[in-house]
């Protein structure tokens, strides 16, 4: 069982930056692939980024690839999402998720555990 708690969301102007954190409980965190997803009002949940257990494999949504960076600290049981050059279209609730398979895929159904989400609002 893994419990995930996101933090770091907030209101920021376009062009600004935020760093989201996701703290995980459980001794097996270092074996999980971790992902970030987002959901804007009226839209489906969307894959943003994922990182495998070692950090050696990552994947990104194309529209964020040059602006966002996913990383993890297994000693702290935490995964991060650094978001730079934020745009109004990045506004959404951001969710952290975990899956036991060592594959940085982007299908929400493949993830076993989810956090409650943190709101990110980017003003123009």
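^ Assign residues to that structure.
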């Amino acid at each position: 069982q893994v419990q995930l708690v996101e933090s770091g969301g907030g209101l920021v102007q376009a062009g600004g930056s935020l760093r989201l954190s996701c703290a995980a409980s459980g001794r097996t965190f270092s074996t999980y692939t971790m992902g970030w997803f987002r959901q804007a009002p009226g839209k489906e949940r969307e894959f943003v980024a994922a990182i495998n257990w070692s950090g050696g494999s990552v994947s990104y949504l194309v529209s964020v690839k040059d602006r966002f960076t996913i990383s993890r600290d297994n000693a702290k049981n935490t995964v991060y999402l650094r978001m730079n050059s934020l745009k109004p279209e990045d506004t959404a609730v951001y969710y952290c998720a975990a899956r036991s398979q060592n594959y940085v895929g982007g299908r929400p159904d493949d993830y076993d555990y989810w956090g409650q989400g943190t709101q990110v609002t980017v003003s123009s």
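The two ends are 40 Å apart (CA to CA).
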